[in-house]
Amino acid sequence: WAKAAGGARWSVFDPDRHRADLARYALAAAIPAAIDRGEFFLDYQPLTSLRDGTMLGVEALVRWRHPELGVLRPDSFIGLAEETGLIVRLGGWVLAEACREAESWGARAPFVSVNLAVRQVHRPGLVQEVRSLLAATGLPPERLQLELTESTMMSTAEEPVRALRVLADLGVRIAIDDFGTGYCNLAYLRDLPVTELKVAGEFVTGLRAPAVDPAGRTDERILASLVSLAHALDLTVTAEGVETAGQAERLRAIGCDAGQGWYFGRPGPAEGCLGRSPALSTMAGVEPVASAG
Ligand code: C2E
Ligand code: MG
Ligand code: MG
Ligand code: MG
């Protein structure tokens, strides 16, 4: 038995691992029926202007109300859905649900931002799917934003690029999610009709007032550089994972356009984040770092 010989992790057959794999695939196999039974739902999280505290839009985040396991976060099933190809169906449900709900909010949420998996973007039917959803729900294209990760755009295939151009021409907004942690191939900023960069929360985590934490300077300099890069390309920048007033204030001082994170609002039912300006008063009262300049 390979495992007995020095506890090698490369054993031919590991029963625990095997059980875990079976459980994962059972979970994946349950996705289509769960869609039909209405077990998936969307939470929404506000994207807030760092300039005036207004809500610019909301991001749709999928959850699974599993009958036995409780409410599952996307990290426990999105990967599986991608591996098995079921993401196309699940992602289609997410898109449809987000468009339908966003249309009903009217002006209370300027746009809804939907995460797209690699497979969805590389599938020939994407443009047609989005077009029909917009037509069916009546949501104006400007009120839909699609979030792609850097790894989604890693491949240089022409088809997805063409599809995204068509969607952008319709007026759909295109954001790069988790910017700065993927492959950072800057060529896609040139080749794709991107409108927004969402900078990964890990750069925000280290952000503190310089006097308090000199080590936070590196994250701050990276963020500042990303902001100038984005602005030089006429893109807006949203910082993810903003948890404190101090971080929001630093981001505003750096020139970042918008923030998303627990400080502005946790993901939850749409009613919770529509039509209010979360944390505006608190933010305005924080240390006036952004002085004349
Ligand atoms: P993401 O698109 O980068 O979404 C942001 C994640 O950060 C969300 O986790 C959100 O709950 C979390 N977050 C928000 N504010 C804070 C904060 O202040 N601090 C911290 N520590 N975390 C914060 P969630 O909802 O678990 O989603 C995880 C990832 O799953 C998403 O990352 C996205 O990549 C993926 N995902 C979610 N919904 C969908 C979907 O409908 N389709 C696809 N393909 N992927 C999805
Ligand atoms: Mg996202
Ligand atoms: Mg993100
Ligand atoms: Mg993420």
Q: What best-fitting shape do the alpha-carbon axes yield?
A: globular
Ligands bound here? ligand C2E, magnesium ion
Helix content: 40-55%
| Biggest sheet character | 8 strands, mixed, barrel
Strand content: 15-25%
What is the arithmetic mean of pLDDT?
Answer: 87
Poorly predicted sequence stretches spanning 5 or more consecutive residues:
284-293
| Helix-strand string | HHEEEHHEHHEHEHEHHEHEH
Radius of gyration (Å): 21 Å
How would you briefly describe this protein structure?
The chain is of the alpha/beta class and 293 residues long. The chain contains twelve helices and nine strands. The protein has an eight-stranded mixed barrel, surrounded by four helices.
Show the helix and strand layout:
Elements: H1 15-29, H2 31-36, E1 40-49, E2 55-66, E3 70-72, H3 78-84, H4 87-105, E4 112-115, H5 118-121, H6 126-137, E5 144-149, H7 158-170, E6 173-179, H8 187-191, E7 196-199, H9 201-205, H10 217-232, E8 236-239, H11 245-254, E9 258-259, H12 280-285
Helix pairs in contact: 4-6, 6-7
This protein binds ligand C2E and magnesium ion (3 copies).
Ligand C2E binds near residues 61, 73, 94, 115 and 240.
Protein name: Diguanylate cyclase (GGDEF)-like protein
